[in-house]
Design brief:
Blueprint lengths: L1 H31 L3 E8 L5 E7 L2 E5 L9 E2 L4 E8 L5 E8 L8 E7 L5 E7 L2 E8 L2 E14 L8 E11 L4 E4 L8 E6 L5 E7 L7 H6 L2 E7 L7 E2 L12 E4 L4 E10 L5 E9 L5 E3 L7 E7 L3 E7 L9 E7 L6 E2 L4
Antiparallel strand pairs: 1-2, 2-3, 3-4, 5-6, 6-7, 7-8, 9-10, 10-11, 11-12, 13-14, 14-15, 15-16, 17-18, 18-19, 19-20, 21-22, 22-23, 23-24
Length: 339
Amino acid sequence: MKKSFSFLIGSIGLVTIAFIVLGLVFEKDENEKQNGLTGIYDVSIDGSIAYVAFDQGKAGIYLPDGNEKPVIELPVDQTILDISFSKDGKKLAYVVSDKEMSRSSKSEVHLLQMETLADQLVFHEKALITELAFDPKDSELLFYLQAETFTNYSPVAGERPHDFDVHSIHLKENEHTKYTDLKKYNMQSMQVSATNESVYIQMDDDEHVQSAEDVFASKQRIFEIPLAAPDEKIVISDPAGEEDLYDFHLLPEREEIVYQAVGGTGPNGIFEYELFSYNWKTHETKQLTNLKEHASKPVAGPDNRIYFLVDRQFGERQPLYQLYRMSEEGKDIEEVLLK
């Protein structure tokens, strides 16, 4: 009887180990199945495009210059969270972290010299750096968003980066500066002002919430944060708007914001995200796209063109991104072929 019981326990152990091994193999296979364009790209002042794509699970940075090989390629267990051109287009900063993020995940910020493609590790942090943005006034000053925790703030929500603040590094001096102490639940779509010492961030308008109902009712808005006085941040998107705003890009010369918001609901019940513009002087809002898909990530390019992504499989397991551009008025929409 003891022998039979020991045999049963041993068999269960072997089966358990087999399932663990199969699980690891399956996870690896799933990682290696990742292919195609991600939602990460940037456009330089001269119209050069850099984008991140997966090739059999390996994240790489590509330049659509006729060469199908990536200029940077990572191991299958790492990914690129953001890239950013300097104002003069001579540098491309990018940040690397674990593909499967956890509370122990770290970040590495690299600098790619566009003329030579020389790659330099600038610094690393025991935290998640999710976005980068060069200061248009100083190509040696690189701003970044850093999350101090990776957790789930709700039992029904997955783990995500939280407690965000704005930082920078001066590349020549190797000097880091932390500007805010907001510990925001979320920050994204950071831009740096080309005319004054401010950054622009999309985040929750939850300054005065006092209850769970207030948190639920708060809206995602776009803020200007003065670096010298971050507590004096102001909403520059429509302060009375009832919609949540997500990805955005500023067009200072037009006194406008191009942003992503829900434009409707498709027949399958999935939200359709479109691009809109808001003029902060006239308070006029205009819908720029009517694709009934998932338009996102507007970026200003040369010749008064706005680049943006469309996910043709939004709501499905794997996204299918395509890059488009249009005029600042939302006309002449065309696909940008990357290969």
